[in-house]
Amino acid sequence: MEQTLVYLTLIGIVLLIGLIMSIIAKMLKVSNVLFLIISGIILGRLNARSGNIFSFDTSFLIGISLLALVMIVFDGSSRFKWKEFDTLSLKVLKLIIIFLALNMVFLSIVTYYVMGLDSIILAVIFAVVMSGTDPATVMALFKTRVNKIVEILKMEAILNTALVILIPFIIIDSLAMEKNIISGFIGYGMPFLQQIATGIGTGVVLGVIVFKLMKKFYSEELSPLAIAATAILGYILAENMGGNGVLAVTTLGVMFGNMYLKEKGSLKEFSLIFSNALEIFVFILVGFIIHVSFSIEFILKSLVIFGALLIIRYAAILISFKKDSKITLKNKAFMTLNAPKGIAVAVLALTFSIRNIPGMLPVLDLIIMIMIYSIILSTIVGKLSKYFIDIYIEKENEKCLVK
After folding, report:
1. How many whole angstroms from its chain centre is CA 133?
2. Mean pLDDT per 10-residue segment, the chain (403 residues)
3. Phi then psi for 146, rounded to 5 degrees?
4. Can you tell me the distance from the alpha carbon of 268 to that of 263, in angstroms, rounded to the nearest whole number?
5. What integer pLDDT is reported at residue 60 of this predicted model?
6. Which residues contact 295 (CB under 8 A, 6 or more apart)?
7. Which of 163, 99, 148 is closest to 336 using CA atoms?
8. The model scores a pTM over 0.90
9. 343 and 136 in contact (C-beta within 8 Å)?
10. Residue 106 has what pLDDT?
């Protein structure tokens, strides 16, 4: 009973700090992510100096990270709408694929040599994670602003979330099959494909059963809980059957986003509230658990890698929109500098830290630093957006051009 009260106290303190930081961020009209991570880092430092005042059990952390992973993947994939998939969406999808491919080739090589990592696979995982952008941060910066460039950034952030989470887990699962990733893919091709098929199949079967039942029976009190339970159950079932749980949840999210359900807005609102509480907890825990080195050498190395990331992103944008004459060089520079890392990256960092993957520690430190850099940069550029793009501010049903 005493241990239970201790955990409840710690959870209450973390959520209270997160709430205060979120209120401050809202007053300043910026994303709360940076405030939450820094709060976690400060708590972690205080904890180390005063002898582990805050202490979380590993199984508790695993549970929280998996719950956050499931809800974030579901929320992100549910935003994908087939009927809204137009020419602009195809261009954004092209940007996501090119940016991901360039990162996997070039950023992984830069990271491997600059950081002196034990394995190139760790650098590839880092490169994939860095391909993601955060929908919440982008939307916080441009909440009431309308512009083609802003829409591209929002769409990119929504579409890349599930992909950026899915690929690292596929790589790690393949590593679990075989230490050599190449022979792992060749020698274990069937188990690998089985993972994907089982994951998608589990999501489809569960989604058809649950969502069809929800079409007929809707309860204001129970239906939102059924959504959360379905996402968690999909992950558990897929993993227990040898499939990919993240892929199962992604499939469920896409089905939910594209299927007609009564009061879908209310269901999404509940999912969002649940996800927001988890986000606060995860961001603070990431800063708390991962003890980032702030040595001059590490900061310089991380800045070099962040610079390489920006150059690669600019190249990806140039390639993706080379035929679009309406997007100017200023617009492309704006998109390059607006690639904030958020909850998907934080959940992956927390999950990797708990899994104790050999040689992963410098990568985790680097992930946190790049998150901080990207959020600071995107916030500054967001405030100066009128110098890069024409912005329309929505006021009720009117639009006002601000130059």
Report:
1. 7
2. 68 84 83 83 73 67 76 74 68 90 94 91 92 71 64 80 78 62 52 76 88 74 77 88 81 79 60 71 80 86 95 94 83 88 82 80 90 88 75 44 43
3. -120, 130
4. 9
5. 73
6. none
7. 99
8. no
9. yes
10. 96
Closest to 34 measured CA to CA, from 105, 136, 119: 136
Can you give the pLDDT at residue 119?
87
Q: Which residues of 194-233 are buried (b: 16+ CB within 10 A; e: fewer)?
A: bbeebbbbbbbebbeebbeebeeeeeeeebbebbbebbbb
Copy the structure tokens of residue 296: 């001059």
pLDDT confidence of residue 396: 39
CA 207 to chain centre: 23
How far is Cα of residue 223 from the mean position of the Cα atoms in its chain?
A: 26
User: What pLDDT score was predicted for residue 297?
Assistant: 92
The CATH fold of domain 2-402: Na+/H+ antiporter like fold (1.20.1530)
Closest of 164, 155, 160, 146 to residue 85, by C-alpha: 155
pLDDT attached to residue 49: 67
- Lay out the sheet containing 145-146: strands in order across: 145-146, 391-395, 398-402
The secondary structure of the chain, three-state, reads CHHHHHHHHHHHHHHHHHHHHHHHHHHHCCCCHHHHHHHHHHHHHHHHHHCCCCCCCHHHHHHHHHHHHHHHHHHHHHCCCHHHCCHHHHHHHHHHHHHHHHHHHHHHHHHHHHHCCCCHHHHHHHHHHCCCCCHHHHHHHCCCEECHHHHHHHHHHHHHHHHHHHHHHHHHHHHHHCCCHHHHHHHCHHHHHHHHHHHHHHHHHHHHHHHHHHHHCCCCCCHHHHHHHHHHHHHHHHHHCCCCHHHHHHHHHHHHHHCCCCCHHHHHHHHHHHHHHHHHHHHHHHHHHCCCCCCHHHHHHHHHHHHHHHHHHHHHHHHHCCCCCCCCHHHHHHHHHCCCCCHHHHHHHHHHHHHCCCCCHHHHHHHHHHHHHHHHHHHHHHHCHHHCCCEEEEECCEEEEEC
Q: What is the pLDDT of residue 10?
A: 76
| Per-residue pLDDT, 291 | 78
- Report the candidate in 211, 231, 204, 203 with the shortest Cα–Cα distance to residue 67: 231
Residue keyed to tokens 């309308």? 146
**Torsions phi, psi of 65, nearest 5?**
-65, -40
Which amino acid does the sequence have at 237? L
